[in-house]
Design brief:
Blueprint: H1 4-7, E1 18-22, E2 25-28, E3 33-36, H2 39-42, H3 51-61, H4 74-86, E4 93-97, H5 100-115, E5 119-123, H6 132-136, E6 154-157, H7 162-168, E7 173-178, E8 181-182, E9 188-189, H8 194-205, E10 208-212, E11 236-239, E12 250-254, H9 256-259, H10 275-290, H11 293-314, E13 318-324, E14 327-332, H12 337-345, E15 348-349, E16 351-352, E17 357-360, H13 368-389
Parallel strand pairs: 3-15, 5-6, 5-7, 7-10, 10-11
Antiparallel strand pairs: 1-2, 2-3, 4-12, 8-9, 11-12, 13-14, 14-17, 16-17
Helix pairs in contact: 3-10, 4-10, 11-13, 12-13
Length: 392
């Protein structure tokens, strides 16, 4: 592919040149059709060519594309009001930025300024981005070993283990950050009670609890926010990926008293809150709430999980199926590279988490017909792999 001559070897790439998309499907330059369970790593949340998003972008293009946040803009105001109206309890203010890593970077600064403490605790298995602050809170050493020293005073507790978190925190811990459902490390769902216990512990210790809902939020798990499954609101929440229907945007939501400690100029973003992204964001939130996409995520997630569970009974290579809504991991007993390649041949695009876990993040508009094709293709591919590996 000619792109490789210019982009360097920074991405694990698949041999598909995508030309267009609609709903939960994409087509390559040869016209081949695929069910898109990659979803742009979760960005295509409301579907490709979503009419609300496309119309909003077209309308905004005829007005203005960029308005710095040193000036006011009604498109931005509408988006902020819509987002805060949907936010978890207590999160009343927003810093708008451009990506998940930027949302995490802002959260680090807000927490440090508010608490005056420098210690940070993240979870083993965490992924929060690859900029220096976010990378410091990301667990996997393979992303970090070439770039040290990173931020100091970062510790990692076992995800889901409140005693480990208690032992890892100290008097200088200012923040605890976690994904309610870990994405990069294999779709690991927080055990019941853990989020509630973590919030109580943070309150007792004078630390802020940050939920990274960059991948798990915005209806992906069948609830508006992943933390809703455990009825727990954080002090700060980080969002990005599908928040603007595919247009780059990140957001850091916080309690008003936390945001109020930040002085003018201590944090900003040139592109953050631009009207184009905000128009797309309002449309994406409307699609989630008015077009039933959160409910569709719950329903179609159940259909998909049930089908995968049935495949698990048929194919001994499937070790586990886990997740919530349309955030699903399928753990195999061997590496998934060949499975992903064979699925491409069958017209299905799928992700991975680590070496042996298939990750499914399809658009929330996915249909039962789409799911039937995914399950049929996976059935064929796993059967082929079992035969090739002589697995009974």
């Amino acid at each position: 592919m000619s792109e490789d001559r210019y982009m360097g070897g920074l991405y694990q790439r698949f041999p598909v040149t995508v030309d267009r998309g609609a709903g939960a499907r994409v087509w390559d330059t040869d016209g081949k059709e695929y069910v898109d369970c990659m979803g742009g790593y979760g960005v295509a949340l409301v579907g490709h060519q979503n009419k609300r998003v496309n119309d909003a972008i077209r309308n905004q293009l005829d007005k203005i594309i960029t308005v710095h946040s040193s000036l006011y803009n009604k498109t931005r105001e509408e988006f902020l009001e819509t987002l805060i109206g949907l936010a978890p309890k207590g999160l009343k203010q927003v810093h708008l930025n451009n990506s998940g890593a930027e949302a995490v970077e802002a959260a680090i600064k807000f927490a440090r300024k508010f608490t005056g403490k420098k210690g940070m605790v993240a979870m083993k298995g965490s992924y929060h981005g690859k900029s220096f602050g976010a990378l410091s809170l990301t667990f996997n050493p393979k992303y970090k070993k070439a770039f040290g020293p990173l931020m100091e005073k970062v510790s990692f507790a076992s995800f889901g283990n409140i005693e480990s978190l208690r032992d890892t925190m100290d008097e200088d811990t200012g923040l605890v950050i976690m994904e309610p459902i870990q994405g990069e490390s294999g779709i690991n769902v927080a055990p019941d009670g853990f989020l509630q216990d973590a919030k109580k512990l943070c309150d007792e210790r004078g630390a802020l609890l940050i939920f990274d809902e960059i991948q798990a939020g915005l209806g992906r798990t069948g609830r508006m926010w992943a933390c809703d499954h455990w009825d727990t609101a954080p002090d700060i929440m980080c969002l990005a990926k599908g928040i603007a229907g595919g247009v780059p945007m990140g957001a850091t939501l916080a309690r008003e008293d936390i945001m109020s400690v930040m002085s003018k100029g201590e944090h900003s973003s040139t592109f953050g809150g631009n009207p184009l992204s905000c128009a797309a964001g309002t449309a994406a939130l409307a699609a989630l709430t008015k077009d039933g996409l959160v409910e569709n995520s719950r329903k179609m997630g159940a259909v998909l999980a049930d089908g995968l569970d049935k495949l698990g009974k048929k194919h001994p290579v499937i070790r586990d199926v886990r997740g919530r809504g349309l955030m699903i991991g399928v753990e195999l007993k061997f590496e998934v590279r060949d499975v992903l390649a064979d699925l491409i041949e069958e017209g299905v695009l799928m992700l991975y988490s680590g070496r042996n876990i298939l990750r499914l993040l399809p658009p929330l508009v996915i249909t039962e017909q789409d799911i039937a094709q995914v399950l049929h293709s996976l059935d064929l591919v796993l059967g082929k792999e079992e035969k090739r590996r002589d697995i009974q």
